[in-house]
Write a sequence for this structure.
């Protein structure tokens, strides 16, 4: 496909400074966790990537094990970068991660220096890149010292294989330790990537405060609670939905209580002139400690809906109170 980016792309997106760095991230970023593997249709995900960039989404987030099969999202992204998309490399923020199981044996998982360095080398080959902009440790390792893992991130940045270091899925206490270590090493942590949505508010239990105090950026993943915070499930679980076919969202997670909450939230979204998915993204961006919201997309419309959220990210006190009341009933 002969791709030429929209000339108005930077007028359609808002950008937020990431923590204490000079880097600005788009308020909406695109994650390639699912829908970009070898099992997916190339023409569809290529169109999703192009549409995202045309709308000002400059940040594309991957990990070594994204697919399926693991590694295939990076390979497919690399193939697309080899084409017309690649001429925009210097206008892109590309990130990847390591920390979950990627290959057999003791060196293909968790947080050792051996694993992180080897994994990033493989990722760069798959994506046909000289470097990534952000490299994350994907999850805390209970058996490897935090000093070793942070030293690996520092080494990777000093080698020029990544411009910035990040962490993901770290609780507040470990995140603070990681920030302190990286600062001492001279490679301050740029960003933390937690799971955060109206249905998963764990970052509000100390993490956002730690990020704000340390001037570290935050990019929220799974903002739609894997599709639950959309109008898809208003009338139950439809055929071909993620809950009907994907093990990452089991049908029993969509309880009658959750369905009732989804319907009530949808009513508030309608009053705001938004789709539920748009309001869910806007709700995260109401907090200026959230640098970017990381969406997934299996079709162009998903990207467009997320970007439409930026038209109204302001909430009245009454709206926030009503949303809180609905969410309290989930506990």
């Amino acid at each position: 496909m002969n791709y030429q980016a929209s000339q108005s792309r930077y007028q359609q997106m808002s950008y937020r400074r990431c923590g204490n760095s000079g880097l600005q991230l788009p308020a909406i970023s695109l994650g390639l966790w699912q829908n970009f593997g070898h099992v997916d249709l190339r023409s569809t995900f290529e169109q999703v990537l192009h549409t995202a960039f045309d709308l000002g989404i400059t940040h594309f987030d991957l990990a070594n094990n994204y697919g399926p099969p693991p590694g295939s999202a990076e390979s497919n992204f690399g193939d697309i970068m080899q084409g017309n998309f690649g001429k925009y490399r210097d206008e892109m923020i590309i990130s990847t991660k390591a920390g979950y199981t990627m290959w057999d044996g003791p060196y293909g998982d968790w947080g050792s220096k051996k694993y992180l360095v080897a994994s990033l080398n493989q990722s760069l080959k798959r994506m046909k890149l000289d470097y990534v902009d952000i490299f994350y440790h994907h999850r805390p390792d209970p058996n490897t010292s935090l000093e070793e893992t942070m030293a690996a991130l520092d080494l990777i940045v000093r080698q020029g294989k990544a411009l910035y270091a990040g962490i993901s899925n770290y609780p507040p206490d470990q995140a603070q330790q990681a920030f302190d270590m990286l600062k001492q090493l001279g490679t301050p942590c740029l960003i933390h990537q937690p799971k955060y949505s109206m249905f998963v508010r764990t970052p509000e239990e100390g993490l956002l405060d730690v990020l704000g105090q340390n001037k570290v950026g935050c990019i929220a993943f799974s903002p739609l609670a894997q599709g639950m915070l959309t109008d898809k499930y208003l009338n139950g679980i439809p055929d071909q939905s993620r809950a009907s076919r994907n093990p990452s969202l089991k049908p029993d997670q969509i309880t009658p209580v959750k369905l009732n909450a989804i319907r009530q939230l949808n009513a508030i979204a309608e009053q705001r002139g938004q789709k539920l998915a748009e309001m869910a993204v806007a709700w995260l961006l109401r907090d200026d400690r959230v640098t970017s919201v990381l969406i997934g997309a299996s079709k162009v419309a998903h990207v467009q809906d997320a970007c439409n959220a930026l038209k109204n990210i302001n909430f009245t006190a009454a709206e926030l109170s009503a949303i809180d009341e609905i969410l309290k009933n989930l506990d």
